[in-house]
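Ticket closed. Logging final result for Preprotein translocase subunit YajC.
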Amino acid sequence: MFVLMYFILIRPQRKKEKETREMINNAIVGDRVITIGGITGKIINIKDDEFTIESGNERTKITIKKWAVKEVIKPISE
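Final structure:
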């Protein structure tokens, strides 16, 4: 029973967490991010466990923790 629960619940969750960690660790300056709170912005600086992003029309600078990033969007290269 436990083995079945592992393959149905735990294993997919761990795989998703690993993919999310890799996505955040591979983020570079210039990538766009969406936070878990819905804030979007462009990465302008990266520190150990923080990103500084520019957001909005007035290019407001916000420092966020890496764990608060939901998605990293790579720019489309031409």
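The chain has one domain: 2-73. No further action required.
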